[in-house]
Amino acid sequence: MEPEDGTESRDATADEIRMAIEALTTEESARLRLAATYCLPGSEYDHFQELINEAVVRAMSAAAGGSGRHWKIGVKFIAFMIMTVRGLSDDSRESLVQRKTKRLELMTAEGGSSEDVIGALGHFNPSVLEHAVENQERIERQERAKADADAIDAHFANDDNIGWIVMGHKDDQSPAEIQQISGMSQTQYNSARRKFRRGLSKLFPSRSTK
Fold first, then answer.
1. pTM summary value
2. Between the CA of residue 180 and those of 40, 157, 184, what are the distances in Å?
3. CA distances from 79 to 1, 3, 4, 15, 113 (A)
């Protein structure tokens, strides 16, 4: 998320991060815990606090000159933390998928064909040609979906409220859940929702319905 217009934009120091953590209100802390809880499924993290702690570690590491994610002064700290938590969970899920894929490849290399390995895992095994066609179609769908998602993220990059709606849609959250995490009122949510729909119509005019 971008800093608000006219505000300072620089990387926060470790001390500023500590002060921001201590300054979190009860409501903001609850929003952060709720966001972390929503992000847990499919990731390698077992508890929301583990995910939050990792976000803090990454922020402090970046502030000290190491790897991690920088908090820009001017961006709301609670928004930065929730975005970092989401990024960590997304990275974790992608990593788990990659590890499972490599494990399957290793099993294949160590003995037997890929058909034998997949069969041993209890999966239905179509013909090689059918599998290749389905896999190519899946890849193409994923590429189109990613291109659409990237275009949407770029188009609404400077609108925090729409950013919450986009993130909520990705996680199949209800309007009530999005409002609870983002802190938006019903009026703010409705306004952002209308703006979001208008933006989508401009981005994808051939797909919009009258």
1. 0.53
2. 17, 21, 7
3. 8, 11, 12, 18, 48
pLDDT tops 90 at residue 13: yes
Report which DSSP code applies to 43.
Answer: S
Residue 9's region, left for phi above 0, alpha for psi from -120 to 50, else beta, is beta
Are the CB atoms for 69 and 58 separated by under 8 Å? yes
Percent of the chain with pLDDT over 90: 17
Tell me how far apart the alpha carbons of residues 164 and 63 are, in angstroms, rounded to a whole number: 26
Contacting residues for 197 by C-beta, under 8 A, at least 6 apart: none
Residue whose token pair is 């995490």: 181
What is the tens place of the pLDDT at every residue in 70-126?
998 888 899 889 889 988 988 887 776 555 555 555 544 544 444 444 444 444 444
Q: Please give the angle made by the CA atoms of 72, 77 and 79, to the nearest 5 degrees.
A: 100
Tokens 């041993």 -> residue: 120
Question: Which DSSP symbol is given to 76?
Answer: -
Return d(Cα 91, Cα 62) in angstroms, integer. Answer: 17
Mean pLDDT over the full length of the chain: 76
Tokens of 62: 């970046």
d(CA 82, CA 79): 5
